[in-house]
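All the exercises in this workshop are built on plain-text protein records. A record pairs a protein's sequence with a compact description of its fold. The structure tokens are whole numbers drawn from a learned vocabulary of backbone shapes. Once this layout is familiar, the rest of the handout is easier to follow. An example says more than a description, so a record of this kind follows.
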Amino acid sequence: MKAALRNYHARMQRVLDHIDRHLDDDLGLDVLSSIAAYSKFHFHRQFTATFGLSVHRYIQLARMKRASYRLAYSDAESVTDIAMDAGYDAPDAFARAFRQRFGQSPSSFRKFPNWKPWLAAFGPLDNARSKLMRKTYTPDDVTIRDVPPTPVAIMEHRGDPATLGATIQRFIAWRTAAGLHPKTNPTFNVWRSERRPASPADYSVDLCVGIDKPIEANEEQIKAGEIPGGRCAVLRVVGNTHNLEPAALYLYRDWLPASGEEARDFPIYCQRLSFFPEVPEHETVAELFLPLK
């Protein structure tokens, strides 16, 4: 029974991966049912039963999520191009759908995103994806690495995690203006609080970019800092990297007590190696670092 269930999940995972890779292509029932190797007469019901939303709804949300990321984080792309890539024949149709879902026009969202309705709108998509993306880690997935110290520029986010998107948007704008491209200057997140503290006001994370030059005075209160060198337990995560909590829990709850190691006095952090929507969500990569004594 377990083998049959694993096979079923693998076939459904193939469908999600195909959707991620081919958001601009024909994603009709004939295509997706053949990817899953199920009858098209039953596939749509199987998909809904598995993920809690229809194939059509899933694709709509996936395309709209990619579009919203492009609006918020890529000023170089026009609203018209983003609308077409999201599957709409005209910008006004895209604008109506966008406003209905998020309460803002695409142009307004690009300038001043309201992230709370955005998070609520994509809750069903994230829940659907998480059903088959639960990763079971083992000690073989963890390596101990001596890492060099890394000078970084830091933008602090303090307060409600629902507003983190706005801080990320400002961080990307600043690093772009400073010429610090992710391919040449590594990106880090340093968590100084729990992912969901008892009070949202206590949420705390540093957005960091590696830098090898002085930081000029700026309105964003970017400051210089350092990710210290030393021994770290490193866990590589592929896909679903917007939520690294399961990987962090594995390191703290399972790996650390069994390893005989002790954590060093610096927070757990990650280096983001690839980013959505530059790559499909299931191909995003991050490495989680637990500093050790």
Remarks:
- The longest strand covers residues 150-158.
